[in-house]
Amino acid sequence: KAKTAEEKHRYENFAEGKTKMTYGVISNCVDDAGRYSYVKRLREHTPLDLYGRCGNLTCPRNGSCEALLKPYRFAVTFENSNCKYYTSEKFWNALNRRNIPLVNWIPEQVPFDAPPKSYINVHEYQMEDLAKLLKRLANNDTEYNSYFEWRKNYTVIADHFAGFCDMCKALHNDSVPAQVVDYKSWLADDTCQGWTLTSIITRRIKNYFV
After folding, report:
1. Taking CA atoms, which of 24, 90, 147, 163 is between 20 and 30 Å from 138?
2. Is the pLDDT confidence value at 11 over 80?
3. What is a single cellular component term in the Gene Ontology annotation (predicted)?
């Protein structure tokens, strides 16, 4: 008897083939969110391989990179800025690789379409507690698999053209009234940190020496 999609999911072990702990890909070592500084400290508590200009490992921009990253259980998918509604492809790519993403979202940044219990927000844990959680999940397949329950009801579409299709649908949706957006007010109400000479110096000190 052929299994249903739900039955296939029920018996699938997402921890299978996951032979490595955590990876991060960071090439901008000085950013608003202080990713590099956080990762440096996190590596003192848990195994973490760092790719990109900020790390000692390289991941080619081709299919071989996917093969390198897929065996990891967790992925550092920190955004370089904590701006409202800002989520980049790093998060979605990790979901497609069947990694559990570690995110650094502030409340205003959480995307409405992020699958429930598909990620771990580092802001919700002390660093030592986060390391303990990762170790526990790595040693417990059942608990690790609980972060993939969302796959029963959701599918991640990795097609780069999907966004253009959604935009076209929205533009042709007459049920949504036209709006005149005050961009200045919208930007003024954002959570992004502005760039000044002082802030640039502060970022460098924070990322390299803190």
Report:
1. 90
2. no
3. Golgi cisterna membrane
SS in 3 state form for the chain? CCCCHHHHHHCCCCCCCCCEEEEEECCCCCCCCCHHHHHHHHCCCCCCEEECCCCCECCCCCHHHHHHHCCEEEEECCCCCCCCCCCCHHHHHHHHCCCEEEECCCHHHCCCCCCCCCCEEHHHCCHHHHHHHHHHHHCCHHHHHHHHHHHHCCCCCCCCCHHHHHHHHHHCCCCCCCCCCCHHHHHHCCCCCCCCHHHHHHHHHHHHHC
Confidence class of residue 188 from pLDDT cuts 50, 70 and 90?
A: low
With both helix axes pointing from N to C terminus, report the angle between 35-42 and 127-138 in degrees, rounded to the nearest 10. Answer: 60
Query: Binning pLDDT at 50, 70 and 90, where does residue 10 land?
Result: low
Question: Mean pLDDT in the chain?
Answer: 85
Domains of the chain: residue spans and CATH: 5-152 (3.40.50.11660)
Residue 190 CA: distances (Å) to CA of 15, 28, 81, 83, 93: 38, 22, 11, 6, 26
In this structure, what is the dihedral angle of CA atoms 118, 121, 127, 132, given to the nearest 10 degrees? -20
pLDDT tens digits for range 43-63: 999 999 999 999 999 998 888
